[in-house]
Amino acid sequence: MRKIFPLLLLLSFATTFSYAQKYAVIDTRYIFSKMADFEQVQKQVENQAATWQKEIDTKQAALDKLYNDYEAEEAMMSDDLKKQKEDELFNKEKELRDLQKKRFGFEGDLFKKRQDLMEPLQKKVADAVNRLAKANGYDLVFDKSEGKSIIFADPKLDKSEDILREMRLK
Fold first, then answer.
1. Where are the domains of the chain?
2. For residue 22, is pLDDT > 90?
3. Rounded CA gap, 140 and 153, in Å?
4. Distance CA 143, CA 165 (A)
5. Closest Cα to residue 114, out of 35, 36, 47, 28?
6. Would the pTM count as exceeding 0.85?
7. 16-25, 37-46, 81-90: which has the minimum mean pLDDT?
8. pLDDT tens across 64-75, in order?
9. Phi, psi (rounded to 5 degrees) for 14
10. Residue 133 contacts residue 141 (beta carbons within 8 Å)
């Protein structure tokens, strides 16, 4: 009985270590930077953002002109006309804020545009990661590009180059 207990203990440790998970680390930011399509996506997003920013700047300039006109003529206006002009200015300012939020706010048009354009690239990377993980028996693949959950990763675990080869970009 005394010989069986240590043997069972040793056997349980051996089976525990044989089920150790195999994992890899990738850097999606690096992978995307090596993709030609990514640069095109970035340029499209920047161009769209510039177009929307011009639209907002034009509306801001018009609003500024309305404010300046109001301030110049305020002394000569009746109370009713002042109230009407102030309401008009308030509504125009609200429209401008709503447009800024719609275009550049959290989950606004720019966010959606970037997401739509990035989806095919993300799918390519995800497919390559899945193929590499299955081929090499990885149980987990971590992305170190965000850096929030990985404090340290041994460089030999980084399989980003393997992903690029899998995608035939290298």
1. 18-166
2. no
3. 14
4. 17
5. 47
6. no
7. 16-25
8. 999 999 999 998
9. -65, -40
10. yes
